[in-house]
Amino acid sequence: MAPRKIIIDTDPGQDDAVAILLALASPEDVTVLGITAVAGNVPLSLTEKNARIVCELAGKPDTLVFAGCDAPLARKLVTAEHVHGKTGLDGPQMADPTMPLQDQHAVDFIIDTLRREPSGTVTLCPIGPLTNIATAFQRAPDIIDRVQEIVLMGGAYFEVGNITPTAEFNIYVDPEAAKIVFGAGVPLVVMPLDVTHKALTTKDRIAAFRAMGTKVGDMVAAWTDFFERFDMEKYGSEGAPLHDPCTIAYLIQPELFAGRHINVEIETASELTLGMTVADWWRVTDRPANTLFIKDIDAAGFYDLLATRLARL
Ligand code: RIB
Ligand code: CA
Q1: In 55, 110, 185, 234, which residue has its Cα 20 to 30 A from 65's Cα atom?
Q2: pTM for this predicted structure
């Protein structure tokens, strides 16, 4: 089967970095048409720089990287330096990138790509706030029906929130954008905290990255060592959830995951539950199913895939 053509929309973020590496290491499964940076974990000036750092680490300096929106549609930007550190990729020391940032705005790249490629052949993989995607849909509604699928990391239901008691970070940062994306009618696959919190790093899994004896393996081990401290302190867990790579792993090996086609709506009116993904898991409403909401993962298989593919870089 031909590799899936994808655009990764991202706010690196150590876990975003692993997702980008997994995609760039898997050309037989995915063709990365471009990487679009959005403000999220850290401001846009850092997320676009970090995206380029990761592409160079992967040995793919020709990857097209674009800068997108630097603030949510209707709210002040909330960042997550407390999780990812000041740079967004804290852990190891990293040199500034030398590969270029594309001049075109990320939103224009998304619009132009969807208009150029045959309809139904491009998958969007947002792994940060949904501002770029929603802006593209608002500016060019004609592209919505041309999207093959959206496979995103965001939301939470049984696992509840990680930035507020009811909201997951990516959705919380730009709930208005999430409402647009979840309501657009594009086939949606959602990787919420319900599944990503089952994809935890462990000492052995991090040791496997380090045992690769490569720069990529060392960097991923250093990133996850840094990144896991927040979740271990907060949840008392043994390791940290590698949220964003779940989206790319789904494109490569969907059988690693299980979920349910249900309705998911986004709370944008209540300050108390702002950004909550209201998932009708038990189908108690007649709201139409708009999402494949993923709840389970073969975590051992996921980490085997990561180790195998990242060792290629
Ligand atoms: O809540 C987890 C999500 O927020 C991940 O995408 C992480 O990178 C942050 O963006
Ligand atoms: Ca992210």
Answers
A1: 185
A2: 0.97
